[in-house]
Amino acid sequence: MTTESPETDSGFHVFDTTLRDGAQREGINLTVADKLAIARYLDDFGVGFIEGGWPGANPRDTEFFARAQQEIDFRHAQLVAFGSTRRAGGSAAEDPQVAALVASGAPVVTLVAKSHDRHVELALRTTLEENLEMVRDTVSHLREQGRRVFVDCEHFFDGYRANPEYAKAVVRTATDAGAEVVILCDTNGGMLPAQIQAVVSTVLADTGARLGIHAQDDTGCAVANTLAAVDAGATHVQCTANGYGERVGNANLFPVVAALELKYDKRVLPAGALAEMTRISHAIAEIVNLAPSTHQPYVGVSAFAHKGGLHASAIKVDPDLYQHIDPARVGNSMRMLVSDMAGRASIELKGKELGIDLGDDRDLVGRVVARVKERELRGYTYEAADASFELMLREEVEGRARGYFRTESWRAIVEDRPDGSHANEATVKLWAKGERIVATAEGNGPVNALDKAMRVGLERIYPQLAKLELVDYKVRILEGRHGTESTTRVLVTTSDGTGEWSTVGVAENVIAASWQALEDAYTYGLLRAGVEPAV
Amino acid sequence: MTTESPETDSGFHVFDTTLRDGAQREGINLTVADKLAIARYLDDFGVGFIEGGWPGANPRDTEFFARAQQEIDFRHAQLVAFGSTRRAGGSAAEDPQVAALVASGAPVVTLVAKSHDRHVELALRTTLEENLEMVRDTVSHLREQGRRVFVDCEHFFDGYRANPEYAKAVVRTATDAGAEVVILCDTNGGMLPAQIQAVVSTVLADTGARLGIHAQDDTGCAVANTLAAVDAGATHVQCTANGYGERVGNANLFPVVAALELKYDKRVLPAGALAEMTRISHAIAEIVNLAPSTHQPYVGVSAFAHKGGLHASAIKVDPDLYQHIDPARVGNSMRMLVSDMAGRASIELKGKELGIDLGDDRDLVGRVVARVKERELRGYTYEAADASFELMLREEVEGRARGYFRTESWRAIVEDRPDGSHANEATVKLWAKGERIVATAEGNGPVNALDKAMRVGLERIYPQLAKLELVDYKVRILEGRHGTESTTRVLVTTSDGTGEWSTVGVAENVIAASWQALEDAYTYGLLRAGVEPAV
User: Fold this and answer.
1) Which of A408, B15, B214, B494 is deepest in the core (most CB within 10 A)?
2) What domain of life is recorded for the organism (chains A, B) (predicted)?
3) Which residue of A has its CA nearest to B243?
4) pLDDT tens digits, residue range A472-492?
5) Domains defined for chain B, CATH in brackets
6) What is the pTM of this model?
């Protein structure tokens, strides 16, 4: 099934459990097609093992194993079935749950085993001796069926604190029965790195077993806990893409492998894979239908974004002064944010990023800085409105506004009728190519009605507007202690199918601010489409 | 200014820099009012120090320091001004930037100093000797002005790697000149806990200085890095609420203090403060207008939510089997994602809090739970709208709506005129005490016009409305991928001079949602005033 060994040169295991433990995250609900798509990305990324689910526990997971082996030509990963040790008092060879693991066809099985004495007694309701026998019997049986076996010791760290000898007995029993790796799980996620490191060191010295780590993020330390275990000698890390998982989540695959490759100089992924990390992180987020976390380490869109003026001037001297790695190594890139904390340096860098050379014109840069500061004082923000910033910059550089149309006036009416229904109607009066346009439209709100009226009026002259779509709309009330008399800022994100851009409007009311943001959104869309300005 | 010592019993410093470093996060843009509101929450929470910004660097921060000292009666925190060491070749006594720090009136100043030799040469463009002199001179000057001084050693860990002797010389110089704490900053955020621990231990042994830690989260280890520094002997931690900060963010205040209090048994906050943590985290997120992270350790709504069937059945046996702490200790609660048990309990608690006894009526509680669930699914949130929740609860208990007036219909018109001015006019048709009222008013926006028309119409019948004032107004667009066709949620805070209350409205457009929130706001105001209902 695999054309290469699942381990990397060093024999270190990168084990992904996005499809099993990651799927426990609140808000994630994966179809078989989703699971197959994610498995393909994970295999591309080069993880050694993909835990696909619990075959037999639900029909979806059973189907996934069948189809994954048929439909995916794994290049790097081995498929792993997750299941439990056999029932108390039975035999592994006759246990239907164990039989389903074998039937899945997965070459590797991860068995979850209890290692905390209290859990054995309270949750399994069996004896400590029988639990050890369940581990031994199930591992042996699966080994006889030709499977590689990993054993997840659930609640290991809490169990070790309560009864270290019993916890270690579970590790020894699993190893003696043929388990290749025993994974110490911080199931409740309450541990800190120093505790993890101490326990892993001791268990390694006392048992000689090959150890792995499975960390949950309840203390916000899952990545550090995983690395602490590696420091102590663990050679197998269990992670999930983007840290998805129950409660707070699991150890995030991306910062873990980035630390191992870039900070430890360990080769844990195929050559070149790390540079795909940002793309793969975002693709998986799209599949599970969660917005990619903008502030995720290494891969977030903000991970290499700079706002402080102090930083910006230093970055002009040398980008490495304010970034811990070259973002290209993880497929990300540096971005300069424009804000009133920024000075000349960040405006110059931003201009360069947009392909507008401001190089020698100190007056021009000074004017732009002053204008940004003055507008940000009035409530505008350009760090989240690149397109409005670019329009303003071009206006300064080219000495005139980029005009495709001019607004004469507009009007929006919102009406709540006695029957509880709402009517929203807008009329716009515009000028474009020497022509006066009057258009009216209805919408489900005043902004939607204005948006529609603007399109109705302009689409005949600028057919390029037809493919523009408003994909996000944000409202923020500024100086919030004045109630409804505050200033309102609106941010609009627009798409033309190939790219997205954001624009900003600020006014004393939400409708007027929205109109400004819409004007910029359409102007930028026409600029992007290469249309010649002609008011 | 403070009535208690800013340090806790142990003398440990919890230093918050949400208002300075946290504000560097992409997407955060704080007004002075926002900063004052956040400072109040941080002081309530009991941090020892609140870094408010860089006075003199921009007018907003200067205004913040002036108003914070006038308007806030700090109970726990000392206010801290952030600034830089003096310019190369000058004198601290004559440096305008240093003068602005003194003029801010803040009793504590944090000075950022370069400690990386390459940064001194490339970014500051001065000599290593002059940089030390800048530290010495600026610290001494501020001490002479009666300020407590902390020194942030920027890029300390990278600098230590490049030139450990120079990095330590900066620490010694600052301490010798009178700095109370020297903070080692991982400015680029590239460090891992083991590295932090080793460097902090050595620097502490070699310099004897009181050390602090400032960690950025670029490796996903900021919380662990902060704790590693504490393990090595640091007694001052710099954090931001919810981990806001440049790039990926800063060490998150909440998991850091939770670990110190709950895992280290260190007393770093006033008694009882930890149990307010979830509420305070969410309140600050609302002020900066970012959705509270659902998966944040300790305080996320998912942090103690259980989905796995395995976990659910074990939790029925004993909740501690699957949670690392009792969530009540941090003001959070366990949620079973498949049961309404948690819902009932919190509704009962909430009723008790409002003085409405629901004690024995299981049907009533069930109806309220169902109604809350149904409304939250449609976008309502009651966490931040206590008054709307109370109105709904009373409606269920008393079996009828609390009516002071009934809306027949309303209409708002917003017009942008050719001269650029805006006209906003609203008409409302209401019934109160058997009378039909038609009123019209103008405002600076459609919501303001509706608000005024409602008052004009009702004040004759309910003169109590005269003293109500809208003090805050927030808009959030839900399901943001549908552009202007999304659902809109409006939160309004109203004051009657003695207290404030918040109400919520949800509709397909911002005006209709605002109207709902205003209706609840006035109804609750009349209820508070003891007026008898009479539609």
Assistant:
1) B214
2) Bacteria
3) A295
4) 787 877 754 444 456 888 888
5) 13-287 (3.20.20.70), 377-404+463-535 (3.30.160.340), 406-461 (3.30.160.20)
6) 0.74
